[in-house]
User: Fold this.
Amino acid sequence: MTLRAEMDVLYISDMSEIELKFLLDKKKSSEIWARAKASKLTRDAPITRTLRSIYLDTPEHALKKAGIALRLRRDGRRWIQGVKTGRTLHGGLSQGGELETPAPGGRVCLDAIPDPAVREAIVDRVNGALLQPVCETVIKRSTGELTLADGTRAELAVDVGEVRAGERSAELSELEIELLDGNASGLFDIASILVPEGGLRFSRLSKAARGYLLAEEGRIDVPLAPRTAENVALDPSQTAEQAAREVLRECLDQIATNVLVVRQMDDIEGPHQLRVGLRRLRSAFSVYAPVLRSPAMKRLDAEARWFGREVGALRDLDVVANDMARREAERHPDEPELSALADLVVRQAQERRALLRKLLEGARAQAFLIDLARFVETRGWLAPLDFGQTERLGTPIATLARQSLAKRWKRVAQHAHGLETLSVEQRHELRKQLKKLRYAVEFFCSLFPTKRVDPFLKRLKKLQTVFGDLNDAATLKTMFTGADVPGAGDPSIQRAIGWMVGASQARAEFGWIGAKDLWKDLERVRPFWR
Assistant:
């Protein structure tokens, strides 16, 4: 065997790749290596080289549709053929299979793919079609090995360059931390050490996905927009742990996306969906507490509660300004003080939004997101000394669902007892219990027949609407009473406040009249989980 052939054999790479990926501002990218050295994660200077990666596919993008990325990469004077399969990306953590072989002359050779199953799958998808370039990346990559005190080793890569597709191009800066040896939790530690002040953003797409997006739509990321909650399709054969992980991933994605929305957009739906995401996360913690209980979850729950209050302060101002004061002003154009009040609250909301943005760009928000992603993706609930945990984690999800829904329904029924005589505080507590029940229903609804879930959920939502009006009235009253009430020295503003408080209280009480009938209607529907 020649030396060249021997080197080619040794270069074949067949492995599962685990890496944590963040989008990075160019300014921060220049500081990363200095921080790595200052933190004693490495003593060596990084190795910098330029990589050109060309992604190939059939004209119909058959490989992309199958979740396969076929790449030719030029690294210095050599070409490498790479195949990535089974790629998942959650909370910035990318996992999947990767195969690399030499590609002399920069030519694709499907027969050289060492894994027979992968080779056969690609050949079947290509089906004799001509493989052609779809996109490429030209990246200046600085790499080096980092080591944590516990022995975890990782490769740090700072990528700065471009994604190209035809005449289109877009700049890209990424931070990648790939696990070489040890615990994947260490990747999150490294990210926190390298960028402690905040501002990191989870990368939601691979470079291949960004290239395809540029070729097809002229951009390298999905449009930023408020992210609503999505129901997770659970499988009755799943364990409680498997289902919990999917639900928590959904909560994390909603929260992380809406953090960016609030940071970069003025859309009032952003704070609303961020608060919903935080509430759903806490409800998920509560639902899965019997199997996931751990100190880490308690800490995350406390942080989510704190962030929920901060986001809620802005959301309440947005509701009062846009859904209440502005609505009354439009209904009564002959009352100009209502518009003046709406403008006043809008200005307060703008000031609160600026404060919230600083918070979401800072260290505490970043630590929360990184720790939440770590908890979900590295099974942060595992406790080696809890010998009963394995059995709890293996609980069939259908069993946990029935137990959880029955428990929440019982609590709602207890708080709804004597509905027509409930005090304001008791109504507020019932509202919270109804919301928790609704989140639990949404978490588990895919496990039950739709024709049984829908009638229950429809009636539950109607009842929640009544309590929503009650909560809006209480929020308005709290906001406009006290020593620091806005416009305290302006009689016209005070008149508008009196109008608003009276109108909201009247609307809430009118809705409350039908609450008893709505509750009875909900009680008559047979609980679908029984």
Observations:
- The two ends are 70 Å apart (CA to CA).
- DSSP finds 19 helices and nine strands in the chain.
- The longest strand covers residues 132-147.
- The first helix runs from residue 3 to 11.
